[in-house]
Amino acid sequence: MSEDRLRLLVVGAGRMGRVHLRAIEASSAAVATVVVEPFDAARESLSGQGFEVWPSLDDALAAGGFDAALIAAPSPLHPGLVASLMAAGVPTLCEKPLGLHSNDTAQAAALAADAGVALQIGYWRRFVPELQVLRDEIASGQLGDIAMIQAWQWDGEPPAAAFRLTSGGPLLDMGVHEFDMVRWLTGQDIALLAVVDSGVNSVEPVEGDPESVLATGKLSGGGVAVISLGRRFDRGDCCWVEVIGTRGSRRCEFMIGDAGDVVFQSALVAQVDAFVAMVRGAPSSAATADDAVAALRAVELGTAMYANQHT
């Protein structure tokens, strides 16, 4: 173990927690030394992997042995966990979306600001090299004024029904990534105009979680934004974006099928490295809690709009 690596507490060792543990293992800047996992079976499966494992955050905070934290617990738990870590003065990287409601997220942002503690949000798209190049092209004016940006996120298959019942639906579970990415790429906000969906799948119906959703809106600079989300795609988990400007256009298929796994994992490693650099005083290129608030507010606007359209 390199002594100059930042020691991380990982909160949550479920599906995403284990993905983050693999990213930390691949990082040269961080090392996982402590894990919080409330479920007995999951804790037992982590034994012998070189880190302390505790059933609760309170236990881990009392024991210490870490410099910063990464939250990979279920989304509804994010605000409370962030509040505890901010109160303890622990710099934190929290998985998106930092809660399910923008008011809770805004409160977490205020707690971090008041405490003067670093808080980064896990919108990993910001660490995909292809998207960084696209953002620079847009910012430099190479594409001219943005007439339209279209973003797609289609998964190979839906997650478990139990998750879909509590995830807030595709607009929240998936769409926050697209809302954040569009804002980050263009430097503009989105005002949603319409949201439509395909209805509940007839094979595996899950109330409140339609198979696909399309959201359209207006960028603050005058262009159009289109966000397409789907639970089933024959090419696997795929994400791509197309930008059409007055001087040029770009289509960026940055995550397609099996090859996308490498892109995703590499971005998570780069995200951890950026977090370590921020904790040590470097300027941050990552999403902030305020960015997380903006993404959730876009989701809430879309959800309210959809409800109004269907009453």
Descriptive report:
- The chain folds into two domains: 6-125 and 264-287, Rossmann fold (3-Layer(aba) Sandwich); 127-257 and 295-309, Dihydrodipicolinate Reductase, domain 2, CATH 3.30.360.
- Helices cover 40% and strands 24% of the residues.
- It has helices at residues 15-26, 40-45, 57-63, 78-87, 102-115, 129-140, 161-166, 170-173, 175-186, 259-279, 289-309; strands at 6-11, 30-36, 52-54, 68-71, 92-95, 119-122, 146-154, 190-197, 212-219, 224-230, 238-245, 249-255.
- The strands form two sheets. It has a six-stranded parallel sheet, with helices on both faces. Strands 8-9-10-7-11-12 form a six-stranded mixed sheet.
- Strand 2 (30-36), helix 2 and strand 3 form a beta-alpha-beta unit.
- Helix 4 packs parallel to helix 5 and helix 5 runs antiparallel to helix 11.
- The model has no long low-confidence stretch (mean pLDDT 92).
